[in-house]
Amino acid sequence: MILIMVEEGYEDSIWCLNLLEGLSSRLRYKRLPFRQIRGLEEVQRADRYLYLIGSNNLWLEEAVRASNAAGVYPILLCNQADHAFDADYSTVCLDVVNSMRRLVELLERQGHRRIALYGVNPQSVSDEGREKGYLTARRHNADTRGKNDIFFNTGSLENCFEVFFRRRAEYDAVVCVNEFAAVSLARRMRQRDPERIRKMPIVSCADGWLSRFYQDCILSVRGNFDARAKAAVDLVENLKKNPELSHVIMTVRWDFSMLEGTKQRREPQPRRVPVRQLPRIQDAFYEDPELGEMMLVERLLRESGKTDRRLLWRLLNGDSYAQISESCFLTESAIKYRIRKMVELCRVSGRAQLTALLKKYLPQGLSAEGALDPDKEDGAGRGAE
């Protein structure tokens, strides 16, 4: 049985209702039994998995730990993935940061160069992700003004609007952090400056009914609740099939189909961005000569087939090419070819150095011919027959 539990006070929000609808529909489609509970005291012996739907990090953390204590595995359905709870759990969430970054870049490709971010709640973790994605997109375009173009909602959408209204002429597009901020902005702009709103699209994550009455001025991206529900059910099925999985994070980006389908005033050519050179990071661990030699020997053994490992054992014993040819049923030219490949792989100068490298790191006294072939079937690796 799969359980669903919702944070108290969050269950009536539009986001929770949409997610619950999608999740229950998907579970029924997959014919997976489920029930919604109010508290963990309702957990029964046969219950294995629990979807936790909420927005408050403190509640989520306590719910995760209490779920572990109750013997069920919790799966968070929330707005962000950057939790670090000391517990066993997995997460399915919106990819808020990268979705916001992509949204800003999409608007810029459609010709908008002065984009404001509107209605940010400084206490919201989800809005923090939206702000981060917005600023990331602005930095990629060498725009240092990003912070100055964010308008905060500190408990009054009216005050947020008044601050924005004084600077409205600076922008040719506005991204709102949620549907309610977008509706508030749209209705006030209709009253105060209807001409301006026709030139300045308002873009919002709008999943409800209210924004549909403002479709003439609000362009919508969706929270992709159906995709999140599908991912959540797929995650449970994967956990059932792969019990060794301990922690899985699945992120879902917003649905941009409605915005991408709109006709814009002009379609600029994509800008060519210079290729960034990646830095070379020095790590003392990998610069240790002893480690480097052991890694080469490890790679040689890993990539050697059964015949190659017999050949290596003969080299360690000091056999001649004629002796190796007789025991391995290879021509001397074939033996020399294989040894040359081994020498190249181990970055040494010849057979003598290759043998010395092997003797340095392999245990002494490998008397049995199969000593270099522990539990490895032929048919894999470079030298497989």
Question: Please, could you describe this protein's structure?
Answer:
- The protein is of the alpha/beta class and 385 residues long.
- The protein has three domains: 126 residues, Rossmann fold (3-Layer(aba) Sandwich); 125 residues, Response regulator (Rossmann fold); 89 residues, Arc Repressor Mutant, subunit A.
- 44% of the residues lie in helices and 13% in strands.
- It has a six-stranded parallel β-sheet, with helices on both faces. A five-stranded parallel β-sheet has the order 7-6-8-9-10, sandwiched between helices.
- Helix 1 crosses helix 8.
Q: How many helices does DSSP assign?
A: 14
Number of DSSP-assigned strands = 11
In whole angstroms, the N-to-C terminal distance is 50 Å
Percent in strands: 5-15%
Q: Report the C-alpha radius of gyration, rounded.
A: 31 Å
CATH superfamily of the largest domain: Response regulator
Order of helices and strands: EHEEHEEHEHEHEHHEEHEHHHHHH
Q: Strand sequence of the main sheet, in spatial order?
A: 2-1-3-4-5-11
User: What is the CATH topology classification name of the largest domain?
Assistant: Rossmann fold
Do you know the CATH architecture of the largest domain?
A: 3-Layer(aba) Sandwich
Calculate the mean pLDDT score and round it.
84
Categorize the overall geometry: elongated
Residue windows where pLDDT falls under 50 for at least 5 positions: 262-269, 375-385
Instruction: Write down the CATH class of the largest domain.
Output: Alpha Beta
